[in-house]
Amino acid sequence: MRLVVASEDDPRRVEVRAWLEDHPHPSGRELAEAGYVAPHWPRPWGLAADPIHQLIVDEELKRAGVRRPANPIGTGWAGPTLLHAGTPEQQERYLFPMLSGEELWCQLFSEPEAGSDLAALRTTARRDGDAYVVNGQKVWTSLAHTSKFGILLARTGPENAGRAGISYFICPMDAPGVEIRPLVEMTGVHTFNEVFLTDVRLPAANLVGEEGAGWALAKVTLAQERVSLSGEGALWGRGPTHDDLLGAVQGGGGLSDRVMRDRLTRVWIEGEVLRALRLRSLGARVAGKPAGAESSVAKALADEHGQRLMGLAKDLAGPAGMLAGPGPLGSDDPLWHYGFLFSTALTIGGGTSEVQRNIIGERVLGLPK
């Protein structure tokens, strides 16, 4: 199954190829100013590209071996919100350094008592003249230790105001009163953090949108317009795939154990179902249809698939699977071991499997809340 995006002589493809010939090793700033980091964004930050144009840019960058700057929270969450509700001054200050990867961003949403129930957050922001004084704690903040700014949800209204009392801020991560503590994973990698906010003074100019409109803006960040040829890796689009596991087994001489063969067959079928779902979703977007609940269906399936894939890979390694290095049937790719440890997070991060099934039940099946 293959989606044909556009012909080789499509003028938009020719234009991108010509630019890449002139910029064979573009910097992040050059890519941003050309509109190729987020082509779906409006000019001057993007190209106001439709889905087909976005995919053309995606294909040509991959063909040339050019990678966009990595700033997932910035370009995926903060940027769309600033485009929607930010002031011209905020857009001018933050968007190009965000797109170029010069300034990384993190997300200060979840709290110890407010994860999936985000409306229960307790961090407060009290107006004091021309500033807001912020106090509270955030947790599971990816990349807080390397980020320049964070998008912050804090309560500016009374606690009983619920969603109506939440506001959206830009928080410099080096501001006085911001303390970042690492949460080291069992993979040995430090990605997540606790963030403590003690009398942090944020200029009123760092408020995004109107006071009390934070909940609505948080939902804006979820409505993405980007279309891409996303990866098929089992670790949220990265890492090994079901095809990689099958290739490792075939390269190792196959399997004689019928139970293991059955498990491998089931995992491979799951991977193909997910591939078909991605193409279906991509085809719908190219045809101009709005994104539906496919993302929740795909995530609910993909997360559990990733855990089964990595668990099977570890079992196929046999006794050597007790060690950090070896992969299935003699493979020495360290991503298999890392993926096995990391995969426990898949059904929690980015919205738990239970939350995804609630979305599917309500929006697809029409079940009561």
What would you note in describing this structure?
This protein is 40% helix and 15% strand. With 369 residues, the protein is an alpha+beta fold. It has a four-stranded mixed sheet with strand order 1-4-5-8. Strands 2-3-7-6 form a four-stranded antiparallel sheet, with no helix packed on it. Helix 7 runs antiparallel to helix 8 and helix 8 packs antiparallel against helix 9. The radius of gyration is 22 Å and the shape is globular. The relative contact order is 0.09.
Q: Estimate what percentage of residues fall within beta strands.
A: 5-15%
User: Overall 3D geometry?
Assistant: globular
Helix content: 25-40%
**Adjacency order of strands in the biggest sheet:** 1-4-5-8
Strand count, sense and barrel status of the largest sheet are: 4 strands, mixed
Rg over alpha carbons: 22 Å
Distance between the termini: 36 Å
| Number of separate strands | 8
Structural class: alpha+beta
Order of helices and strands: HHHHHEEEEEEEEHHHHHH
Number of helices: 11
Taking pLDDT < 50 over at least 5 consecutive residues as the criterion, the unreliable ranges are none
Average of per-residue pLDDT values = 88
